[in-house]
Design brief:
mainly alpha, elongated
C-alpha cells in the first residue's frame, strides 16, 4: 500500500526534496519549546480526581481478590 496504491486510485505522488538543515533545526527548536511549555503546565484537577478514583478502585479490587478462594 505504498506509492503504487496511490497511483492506482488516480492520485499522483510527488517526491519532495528534504528540507534544508537550517529549516530542520528551526522546526526542531520550535517543537522542543512547545513540548517544554506543554509539560510544564499543571495537570487539570479533573484528571487528578479521575486518577485518585482509579487508584481507589484498584485498591478495592486487590483487597477483594486477597483471601477469597474460588
Amino acid at each position: 500500500m505504498g506509492a503504487g496504491s496511490a497511483s492506482k486510485q488516480g492520485e499522483s505522488t510527488t517526491i519532495q526534496p528534504p528540507l534544508p538543515m537550517e529549516l530542520q533545526g528551526q522546526i526542531g527548536q520550535r517543537l522542543r519549546e512547545a513540548y517544554n511549555e506543554l509539560i510544564s503546565e499543571p495537570v487539570p484537577d479533573r484528571f487528578v480526581q479521575l486518577l485518585q478514583q482509579l487508584k481507589t478502585r484498584e485498591g478495592e479490587n486487590s483487597d477483594q481478590g486477597e483471601g477469597s478462594d474460588p
